[in-house]
Model the fold of this input.
Amino acid sequence: MSPLGKVLSDASLTKILHSGDYDIRSLHRDYGFQFENVFDTSIAGGFLGSKRLGLDAILKEYLDVEVAKDKKLQRSDWTDRPLSREALAYAANDVRYLGEARQNMLDRLTEKGRATWAEEECVRLSSVRFEPRDEETAFLRVKGSKDLDGRGLAILRSLYDFREDEAIGRDRPPFKIVSDSVLVAIAREPDDEYSEIKGIGWWGRSEMRKRLNKVVFEAKNSEPVLRPRNEARRGPHLSHREREMANQRLKDLKQWRKSLGQTLELDPSLLWPTSSLSRLARLPEALQAEFNETEVRKWQVKEFSESLASCLKELS
Done:
């Protein structure tokens, strides 16, 4: 695979991807590969105001090309070799139009004065790296876990570990064993009938239910899990009144961003990070320092800093 790595890191060659975050992380994880000079058609589509960002939709909108998506092939095991002729054709169609799409989209971005926006986002994309998860706390990132109490989190942790063991034993990814939503549903109502849970599949069968019952019983009798405090929130401690004012200010800042998005016909979330607006809602006088935060893009500061400053002045 090393020749591929040389191509990916060669800054003189443009690598055209579509929603390339997972590809970049996976190749870094498995081979240590790093990307230079990336163009992502999904990012470009976002800055052109496309409502649908799937590859098939992008190709239809910008090239009027229709690429059939075979769900059977999408969900098949691509580690099986040799690949079928149908699989090879499917894979080829995923990339054959990307060069033409890039040029078309780049021309349109230039016309709209947004080429540098997409360029900065693509540079950010090329710098993502695989970060090994902390196995001790990975269960806390499961969607829906924030609504669980200490007992529910203890059950979720045991179920998460149980699923990991099953996935290793079956040589399958965890999500193909059972979904996160099922784990959360059991953790939320551990005394309910598991077979009634939507999507539980073979986990609802008699033999598996016995194993689940044992896991849940032991977790229910263990120490509750306390979720660590969110240390990411910065700023001074606020009184009740100050907190109310900050919440209202955040709503107003989001409305500013929404209006901006409507004017530009773009998804508002592209125009300024929510995390930054949250900090400014609590500490509006820190606007200048906010421009140097890692989430805030240079193009955002250039294009919208004056507008944001005016908004904050009106809210003060």
